[in-house]
Amino acid sequence: MRHLKKKFARPMKPWEKQRILDERTLIKEYAYKNKREIWRVKAHLNGYRNFAKTLVSIRNNQQVKEKNDFLKSLFDKGVIKENASVEDVLALTIRDISERRLQTLVFRKGLAKTPKEARQFIAHGRIAIGERKVRSPSVIVSRKEEELIRLTNLQKPSGDKQ
After folding, report:
1. Residue 110 region, left (φ>0) first, then alpha (ψ -120 to 50), else beta?
2. Exposure string (b/e) for 15-35, b if CB count within 10 Å is 16 or more?
3. Is-contact 41 98, C-beta < 8 A?
4. Which of 42, 69, 110, 118 is the most buried (most CB within 10 A)?
5. Which of 87, 77, 95, 61 is nearest to 141 (CA)?
6. Which CATH number among 3.10.290.10, 3.40.30.10, 3.40.1280.10, 3.30.390.50 corresponds to the domain 101-154?
7. For residue 31, which of 141, 137, 133, 150 has the smallest C-alpha distance?
8. Please, which pLDDT band fits residue 59 given cuts at 50, 70 and 90?
9. What does the alpha-carbon distance between residue 122 and residue 125 come to, in Å, rounded to a whole number?
10. Is the pTM of this model over 0.85?
11. Are 142 and 117 in contact (CB under 8 A)?
12. pLDDT value for 103
């Protein structure tokens, strides 16, 4: 049996009032299903920050190449602007990554009236990126894929009933 690694970390202080209120506003604004999804995004963000910190601490030729590749990949994902620096990566917030989720982009493009409706459309297979149907609302959409988001037709094939 395969043991999968958790993709999130629970908060150190489970009853911290300000964190709970912040998470509640994120759930309302971006229609997260539960707090575990917020923690997953936060863990993703911490991965970006930790890698940026290691890039700042290392000083050699390889560091320059890795820094450029890292910033280019974050730009392609749409998380940062084109001329951003490593310090901009350290200043990223959960909202910056939440804006790049498929669920949020479907709502922002006007394909759904509310973020919850966008989540339903995605879960029911009504949203496609290009020709690929996507059923996960938490997919991070790249800049290239953003224009390819569309509603799919769920028309049943016409057949003769006898």
Report:
1. left
2. eeeeeeeebeebbeebbbeeb
3. yes
4. 118
5. 77
6. 3.10.290.10
7. 137
8. confident
9. 5
10. yes
11. no
12. 97
